[in-house]
Sequence to fold (457 residues):
Amino acid sequence: MDNEMSNANDTVRSDKNHVWHHLVQHKPFEQTDPLVIVEGKGMRVKDINGREYLDAVSGGVWTVNVGYGRDRIANAVRDQLVRMCYFANTAGNVPGAQFAEKLIEKMPGMSRVYYSNSGSEANEKAYKMVRQISSLYHDGNRHKIIYRDRDYHGTTIGALSSTGQFERKEQYGPFVPGFVEIPHCCCYRCPFGKAYGSCEIECAQALEETLLREGPDTVGAVVLEPVTAGGGVIPPVPEYLPMISDICRKYGVLLHIDEVVCGLGRTGKWFGYQHYGIQPDIVTMAKGVASGYAAISCTVTTEAVFDRFKANPDERLHYFRDISTFGGCTAGPVAALENLRIIQEEKLLENVTEMGEYILQRLHALQEKYSLIGDVRGKGLFVGMELVKDRQSREPVEESVPMRIAADCTKQGVLIGRTNRSFRKHNNTIALSPALIATRDDLDEIVTALDVALGNL
Ligand SMILES: Cc1ncc(COP(=O)(O)O)c(C=O)c1O
Fold:
């Protein structure tokens, strides 16, 4: 056995003996090996056995927005780390200051960047801000946070408490009080039995009804994904977010947009909410901020939100008394700075818009071929295909069907995504989120793999 092979075997053995993988039932690894990824360049990754794959999900969970193997990000991180790797964010650091300024330039109306290191944590920070504002200015009454069915906001108990995915939450309760759910906004499965064009956007109106039911003076914020991601890739209709924003303004409720997936270009604008002409009060982001080259997340607020925490300097507890140890790592902001420059210099937003239209068109053509495809939807390089047993009844397929399609695509050398143990019934969406650099040829290869896999069912 040559050296490389024996190293590979050792690695797989160490992995199987000691690594606890995310979201995975490990029993099958008694018979088979886990996928171990060792290299990546552009849109492609290689596993430990030398097999190459086209990655249609940017690192499995829509993260590596600018693609693999970017020397300039790695070099910038290296240079920064040898100079100054870490100091708690009670103090400033150079890339943190520079990235905050560049980021805010892309977010008119926003002003302050709070660093931490995961999407869940960024959302927790936002929830703490909302609760502290409630405590400081509303006698603690406005502590409730409204979230939406099918949205996901993270894995920590607070973030999970604000998540609208039954199976994701199952067995992890009890949850944190004060989180209230509103219906989702997926037209294909309209919770109100209506059709877009002849409806009154009841899904947005539901926010006002919920506020009135709960008592508007008890609600501090609404948290929403601009396009629901893991819940089935659900872009709202154009009227939805402006209506939500108006209702928030009417009742003095903060609007928190979770851009953990959509942020930094995924949908063809810097941020998903920017398609809808709204002005949030809080925006959270993670994954694509540094494309996975370093861990970083941001909770971005308006100056008005920020001001509330410095209005009373004489009061001992009147400031945001929160810390994230790794929010002081400089690798995150320095990687994020290069990542942002790449998106800008390579005109990746334009590419996303053009390629996003192309892939939607290709998937709609596939829908004509396979009656199994009930709905195709998306925004930019972020698309979903909902699979049904029957187009008339829209009965979702069993979860095993997208699992088989994904396994077949993997065999063909294309990695795709799918909704995964999130719902009781609706784990039936295939999800694609290739890197923002995807070309027509890449997208053709992805669609061909799907076509073959659907034909093999
Ligand atoms: C919309 C959204 N928010 C928050 C999170 C949580 O991010 P993290 O896994 O970095 O904690 C995710 C992760 O998938 C997400 O999709």
